[in-house]
Amino acid sequence: MSIGLLAGVLFGAFVLAESGSWVGAVAALLVLGPFYGIRAARRMGRAWPGARDLAPADRTAVVRATRRGEDIGDARLAPAVIDYCDGLRKAREQDRLFPLVVLLLTGLAVALAVIDTLSGSTRQAWVSWLFVLFFLVELTWWPRKQAQLMSHAERAERSARRALQQRNSPDE
């Protein structure tokens, strides 16, 4: 829901800024928000099917600890941390073409921004260049954020594996 809401608000804001239409902005929010939210939930559900077996509080604890690179603190949840890390790796592997798509979209956005600057309204030009900026941020920010996330996930996974080993080793 949080991803869908954020996407819907973002697209709605772009529609409002570009067209000045509140109806279009609300339509973008109501159509694109659920679309992106459902897509993200289904995608992560396929990558991390074990999430369905966890209580919401446990699932939140697993995600939080893994994304922060922290020890889960509960050996019972260690297998879920390992499973979630596998899901993140699967999702990353599926996204290997993502940077190329963003690069292509950036090129298209630059072309449209130039056209809007030369022949469109000032509002259209500003929004078009805002899109270019959005894509440039995506090209620079996302790879660093993804590398940081995977580094944290690997640290949490090592910690979870140690917790499992300690739990399964005979007490001395």
Commentary on this structure:
This protein has 172 residues and is an all-alpha fold. Helix content is 83%, strand content 0%. The chain has helices at 2-19, 22-47, 56-68, 78-94, 98-119, 122-168.
Layout: helices, strands, pairs:
Layout: H1 2-19, H2 22-47, H3 56-68, H4 78-94, H5 98-119, H6 122-168
Keywords: Membrane, Transmembrane, Transmembrane helix
Transmembrane segments: 20-38, 97-119, 125-142
List the main descriptive attributes of the protein structure presented here.
6 helices, 172 residues, mainly alpha
Portion in helices: over 70%
Number of helix segments?
6
Content of β-strand: under 5%
Distance between the termini: 47 Å
Radius of gyration: 21 Å
Q: Kindly give the count of domains.
A: 2
Task: Put the structure in a nutshell.
The protein has 172 residues and is mainly alpha-helical. The protein folds into two domains: 1-47; 49-168, no CATH class.
